[in-house]
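Before any further analysis, backbone shapes were mapped to integers, which produced the following:

***
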Amino acid sequence: MSATDDSVDTGVVTAPGAATKAIRAARPSRRTVETDLGRKRRARRIGRLLTEAHPDAHCELDHSGPLQLAVATILSAQCTDQRVNEVTPKLFRRYPTAADYAGADRAEMEELIRPTGFFRNKTNSLINLGQQLVERYDGQVPGRLVDLVTLPGIGRKTANVILGNAFGVPGITVDTHFQRLMHRWELTAETDPVKIEHAVGALFERRDWTMLSHRVIFHGRRVCHARKPACGACTLASVCPSYGTGPTEAAPAAKLLKGPRARELAVQAGVDPDLVPPTAVVSDTP
């Protein structure tokens, strides 16, 4: 059965196709022009549903303090958070201060961070970052966006991660998951990360920006996958104009859920949690 068929197995007794038809009736139509106010209201609804779906959302890079977070975020480029978290404990013990990074032996550091990939470039960034922090900021990571983006290895995305999670300054993190879901939900057509950040920021309260980023990224990693989203096991189905991109039937959709709360996500979407395979619960969420 195709992803657009009307028959949906929700794990509960229902008339054939009733669940899918109800979702299609409620969700925004591609054929109608959504007003700015309508988009903002839908965005806020998405935000509330994400809050309910992912109460455990958080920065998945293990860290203690701004320096460790800055280092971990630099290492996360083209690498999973899980792999970074496997590398950083030893790295953090070896280099506890900015001065330690500034004076690091290049070969030793390269060997420590090799599993994260692009280790030579990342070593350059970390050593240069330490030097800049020592020379310009007395060894401390600054808490302003304008200062952070001038540091080696730190762009606007990384700066917002640091500000939001180490300094409590609201920021939107436009990574690949965030950008993909903003387009899939049709909350913006912008493709430039900075423009996406501003467009989405205008739809939500500033105080919610940091947690919104975490929840969107959680959803992208656990439910709304790039190639085949779990549409039939997604609590956002009624507000998603891209519903049907992935399977809408409960059984195949449930198999696409990932993470330790995969079965809970299924229940929230009205799907039988037994349809979630055991491997999904322990699977990596890149």
Summary: The chain has 15 helices and no strands. The chain has two domains: 18-57+175-282, 66-166. Residues 119-137 form the longest helix (19 residues). Residues 1-22 have pLDDT under 50 and may be disordered.
